Amino acid sequence: MKLTFAELSTELVKKNLRPSHHRIKILEYLLDKQGHPSVDQIFNDLHKEIPTLSKSTVYNTLNLFITARLVRMLTIEDNETRYDLIVDKHGHFKCESCDTIYDFKINIDDFIADELSDFQINDQDVYFKGICPSCLSNKNTL
Amino acid sequence: MKLTFAELSTELVKKNLRPSHHRIKILEYLLDKQGHPSVDQIFNDLHKEIPTLSKSTVYNTLNLFITARLVRMLTIEDNETRYDLIVDKHGHFKCESCDTIYDFKINIDDFIADELSDFQINDQDVYFKGICPSCLSNKNTL
DNA sequence: AATATTATCATAATCATTACAAACTAATAA
DNA sequence: TTATTAGTTTGTAATGATTATGATAATATT
Fold first, then answer.
1. Are B132 and A122 in contact (CB < 8 Å)?
2. pLDDT by residue for chain B (142 residues), tens digit each?
3. Cα–Cα distance for residue pair A61/A27, rounded to 1 Å
4. Can you tell me whether residue B25 is helix, strand or coil?
5. Which helix (H) or strand (E) holds B39?
6. Distance B11 CA to D20 C1' (A)
């Protein structure tokens, strides 16, 4: 579901964000890139295309997207924040070998225990960690 | 289920950790304190009792406990790690108003998606955020 | 075009965590 | 007991991710 530059721009405008070039590029990157990139990944990759890009801008833009509820912050790891476009609810699996974060379907609402009936739930995160199939098979061939 | 000093000491020895005074105090603190304390909370509270206690020791000891699988790290928030004694699997709810982290029962295994059948799962975390009943009722009375 | 507003940049500041080396304590052996 | 070794704790310095700040550039508004 590759969106055009113009379509991405509209998405930003919908959220009352000015569709600057940098913002569109960062949004596009988040859409295209699998594995839920970190700030460093985003910055390093986009820096090749946009040499003037500053890391501050990446931070600013991501925080802007978070406030606009376009993007979610994943705190699956304690030393590095990852970012996730908000589409539908899903769980996250981080491979401890290759650091890729995979999405998986999960019906989170089924989880909700009775003991939470008096709580106001704003966010739900399901984080799994382990080894992904690709790294598992590599390990076997070593 | 308050454990005595001697019993806590035995727990450490079981895990091949020397039962030093500091380690026992930190373990005891984790057992007694509700809401999953941060390093700062642990340090500040224990510092009153043990004025010579160093924050390094708190970090060292917690990491030791994690390696020994006595304690789990909670990365529910991106700016502060919380710690959780390993007992049985449960979810964590963080109140965004009072910062307390509540446990709740959850049957994670029932919900594991088929798409993860080829993944080796080592850790499972379920993090919810929102407002706890106590803060909700406070808000209503304001 | 002039002015006000917003974006971006570059650097400095912050803050949680880790690394490190010295000081201290406990365990073991002679 | 003393000497030796291993393990623990401390305090400070280093690291590294993130945020704050002030200057500059771009865009929108009048």
1. no
2. 567 878 889 999 999 999 999 999 999 999 998 889 999 999 999 999 999 999 999 999 999 999 999 999 999 988 889 999 987 888 999 999 999 999 998 877 777 778 899 999 999 999 999 999 999 998 766 5
3. 9
4. helix
5. helix B39-49
6. 46
Domains and CATH numbers, chain B: 5-84 (1.10.10.10), 88-141 (3.30.1490.190)
Question: Rounded to a whole number, what is the distance in Å from the CA of A102 to chain B's nearest CA?
Answer: 10
Protein-contacted positions of strand C (CB under 7 Å): 6-11, 16-20, 26-27
**What SS3 string covers chain A?**
CCCCHHHHHHHHHHCCCCCCHHHHHHHHHHHHCCCCCEHHHHHHHHHHHCCCCCHHHHHHHHHHHHHCCCEEEECCCCCCCEEEECCCCCEEEEECCCCCEEEECCCHHHHCCHHHCCCEEEEEEEEEEEECHHHHHHHHHC
Look-up of token digits 């839920």: A36
Residues of chain A with pLDDT under 70: 1-2, 111, 140-142
Q: Do A111 and B132 touch (CB under 8 A)?
A: no
Cβ neighbours of A75 in B, within 8 Å: 75-78, 127
